[in-house]
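Q: What residues go here?
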């Protein structure tokens, strides 16, 4: 995430990210922001968020200096807010109708109703990850409007603070309660990856540049993420025992570490020599490109389990799809009732093979999704009462609990937890 001129604080809910990677820049122009920009860009008709919607592919572009997930989330939240602003005031629901709604039987055999995790006193929060103790981490707004990493445990939301700046985001938590993410530092314009443990936030440093973000941590304390190098390129890293190792790329100038399994396998996306982002798996010093969908050139891995099942998003030449990859085969996950122009993203997979993510409509709407081990999907709307938009961002590796964000007040997102029912 880039700090803009003048020392703007790190923010997931409001900032327009400066996208410089050509494949991702084009991707985001076609992703969930159809309510804001036309896919492919152009010189006329409406405003365009910075860096989004460009259609040309430069032959020599600087890599993205922010994590792709943040950019997609920023676009999603902007589209949801734009859609909400364009709608008329919500219809009043009388007491009889509300009573009838509450009397409907709860027919979902798998998940409980969602829990709103609240905020840190502001109006916004998102949950990114959950461990098997049902400890949840994410980002939440303070009364001041700054946004801080949080740890939610036992019904209470704890502010994890920052590395000296005004903002921070928590991305993952392991079974030991170690939390990773990134934060503004005291130096204006810099964000660094952090490890939070035993009440203290530790700066993990960078690969020589001014930026890093930690996205995933496994149960032995290995961390993966993305960091700027001394040349200004952006590379995936593996951090272990106090040492940050550059994982390299697939021939292009950038790579992004997104998740790591307990066996040390890291996954993410990397630019190849054609400047296309391709999903990768990294193990024992070797970065391997995974398959893309037929007809497509883009893919990004966002989650991996101990069995080696990798999930993410990929294009087929027309739109974006959630995918699962295992044993050398890539599977397009199925979304029932998928309208034309829709897109999906898978963000996590548990040890049973259950996948979570989101589906996005061309008008800016979004809904949290879950796919079973066979790739059959359904949305979680009936678990998120009175929330017209939602996104799922994480899943418990053994519990199958789901976290993310939804907008119960029709505008601002709040972090949620959906517990999986005991079998």
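A:
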């Amino acid at each position: 995430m880039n700090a803009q001129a003048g020392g703007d604080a790190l923010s997931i809910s409001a900032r327009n990210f400066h996208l410089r990677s050509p494949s991702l820049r084009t991707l985001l122009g076609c992703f969930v922001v159809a309510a804001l920009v036309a896919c492919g860009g152009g010189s006329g008709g409406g405003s365009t968020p910075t860096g989004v919607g460009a259609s040309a592919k430069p032959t020599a572009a600087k890599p993205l200096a922010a994590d792709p997930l943040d950019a997609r989330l920023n676009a999603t939240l902007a589209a949801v807010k734009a859609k909400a602003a364009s709608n008329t005031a919500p219809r009043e629901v009388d007491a009889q109708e509300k009573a009838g709604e509450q009397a409907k039987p709860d027919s979902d055999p798998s998940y409980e109703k969602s829990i709103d995790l609240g905020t840190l006193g502001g109006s916004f929060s998102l949950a990114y990850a959950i461990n098997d103790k049902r400890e949840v981490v994410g980002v939440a707004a303070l009364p001041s409007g700054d946004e801080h990493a949080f740890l939610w445990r036992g019904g209470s939301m704890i502010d994890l603070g920052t590395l000296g700046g005004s903002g921070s985001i928590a991305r993952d938590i392991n079974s030991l309660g170690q939390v990773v993410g990134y934060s503004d530092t005291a130096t204006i314009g810099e964000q660094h990856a952090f490890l939070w443990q035993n009440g203290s936030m530790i700066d993990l440093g960078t690969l020589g540049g001014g930026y890093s973000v930690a996205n995933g941590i496994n149960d032995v304390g290995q961390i993966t993420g993305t960091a700027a190098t001394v040349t200004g390129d952006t590379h995936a890293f593996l951090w272990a025992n106090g040492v940050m190792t550059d994982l390299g790329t697939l021939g292009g100038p950038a790579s992004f570490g997104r998740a790591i399994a307990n066996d040390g396998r890291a996954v993410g996306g990397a630019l190849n020599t054609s400047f296309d982002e391709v999903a990768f798996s990294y193990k024992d010093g070797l970065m391997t490109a995974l398959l893309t969908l037929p007809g497509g050139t883009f893919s990004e891995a966002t989650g991996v389990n101990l069995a080696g099942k990798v999930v993410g998003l990929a294009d087929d030449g027309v739109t974006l799809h959630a995918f699962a990859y295992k044993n050398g085969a890539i599977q397009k996950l199925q979304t029932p009732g998928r309208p034309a122009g829709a897109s999906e993203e898978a963000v996590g997979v548990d040890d049973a093979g259950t996948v979570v993510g989101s589906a996005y409509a061309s008008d800016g709407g979004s809904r949290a999704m879950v796919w079973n081990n066979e790739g059959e999907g359904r949305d979680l709307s009936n678990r998120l009462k009175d929330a017209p938009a939602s996104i799922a961002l994480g899943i418990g590796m053994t519990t199958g609990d789901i976290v993310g964000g939804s907008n119960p007040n029709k505008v601002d997102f709040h972090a949620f937890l959906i517990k999986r029912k005991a079998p």
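A: Context that may help when evaluating the design: The radius of gyration is 20 Å. The chain has three helices and 28 strands.
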